[in-house]
Amino acid sequence: HPPSTWRPIQPPTGEPEPSAKFETSQSGTPAEVQAEAQIQTKGETTEPSPQTTPKAAPSGTHGGAAIPTFTLAEHESSEDEDDEDNLPPPSFPAMNSAQRTSALPAFVAPPPKPALMAPPPMRAPSSLMAPPPRIVPSNLRALPKPSQSMHVPTAGPLPNRSPLPNRGPPASNGSLGPPAAAGPSLKTPNARNRVLLSPGHSPLDWAHLQRSGKNLSGVSSLTRVTPAMLKHNNGRKGKPSWSSYQGKVYNITPYLPFHPGGEGELRRASGKDGGKLFMEVHPWVNWENMLGECLVGIMVTEEQTPADSNGSLEDMD
Ligand code: HEM
Questions:
Q1: Nearest protein Cα to ligand 1, atom 29
Q2: Is 15 left (phi over 0), alpha (psi -120 to 50) or beta?
Q3: Residue 274 CB less than 6 A away from ligand 1
Q4: CA of 160 to the centre of ligand 1 (A)
Q5: What's the count of helices (H) and strands (E) in the chain, helices before strands?
Q6: pLDDT digits (tens, 9 = 90+) for 171-219
Q7: Ligand 1 contact via 268 beta carbon (within 6 Å)
Q8: Structure pTM?
């Protein structure tokens, strides 16, 4: 329980002794305090000295002498007038406190609109984001035309590169391919009818062979090839295998073991125009680039070949 509070009340001028008013949470109302004080002061025998505190004594010892009494009644009026005592405890903070005063605008008026901050800029999608690129034919890379020659890089992957060939002995499970004695190529049951090329016959090996400077055409100079000549060089009975493509004749003999589709497939174009077969299987392959060093000459009619010449192009003029 909180301690009792007391407050001295100044007596009127000339009052012999102070009086006290007690307000306790336990002692009850001021009327009860007053009654108690009256009891204590009854029976005083002598005139009270202004300097001493009245003593309480049994009521019968003084023979019924008048015993002065005093009460706190005269203070009750002031007590009643003391409105502050009846006021409820002030709420915190006080209504006139600086704390309330300083915070008053916040309670009274809502915070101002975000006038201190610039409003967010209106988003114009076209100014913040670049439009997606348009897909127009000019942005697309053109596919190489069959007539264009393809540059063969000296390093890195080759166009239309086939899997690396087996360069070592076959593994015990045979997964690395056939032994070297199995021939230049072997048919395999893969989905694209590719063959396992024999060692040393990879596309890269072919690229190296084309740049070796060796004569892969089988002729000393570019030759005028008549249809009869093309048909004659069909690769059989030790004859070279020639094939024409877009008016040019190529000796495909050295390329046979390098052909990813197998020798047998390539031989189907021997002694004739191989363009149709070629385009049916792999139009993306650059014939001229693959067989550039194998160029024999150009196709001419039978009449364009002088009977007294060997068909060399130097003789045409
Ligand atoms: C004479 C010129 C020819 C050249 C230079 C040539 C070259 C090639 C090349 C580079 C590949 C690999 C293709 C790739 O990796 O995507 C290939 C595959 C193949 N070639 Fe040829 N080829 C020729 C003619 C032929 C002919 C005349 C046939 C059939 C009649 C043929 C049938 C195949 C087959 C079946 C494949 C395997 C399947 C494939 O890879 O798509 N090729 N050829």
A1: 265
A2: beta
A3: yes
A4: 9
A5: 10, 9
A6: 444 344 444 444 455 555 456 778 899 999 999 999 999 999 999 999 9
A7: yes
A8: 0.48
Distance CA 314, CA 317 (A): 6
In short, whether 261's Cβ falls inside 6 Å of ligand 1 is yes
Report the top-level CATH class of 182-315.
Answer: alpha beta
Q: How far is the CA of 261 from the centre of ligand 1 (A)?
A: 5
pLDDT at position 142 over 50: yes
pLDDT at 37 over 50: no
**What atom in ligand 1 is closest to the CA of residue 269?**
27
Separation of 259 CA from ligand 1 center, angstroms? 6
Is residue 99 predicted with pLDDT exceeding 60? no
Segment 157-183 shows an average pLDDT of 43
Listed by start position, the domains of the chain span 20-46+65-84, 182-315
Q: Is 279 in the pocket of ligand 1 (CB under 6 A)?
A: no
Which pLDDT does position 194 carry in this prediction?
A: 82
Q: Shortest CA distance to 33 belongs to which of 24, 45, 43, 42?
A: 24
pLDDT-derived band at 238, boundaries 50, 70, 90: very high
C-alpha 231 to ligand 1 mean position (Å) = 21
- Return the structure tokens found at 242: 């020639």
> Ligand 1 center to residue 171 CA distance, Å?
28
Region of 81 please: left (phi>0), alpha (psi -120 to 50) or beta.
alpha
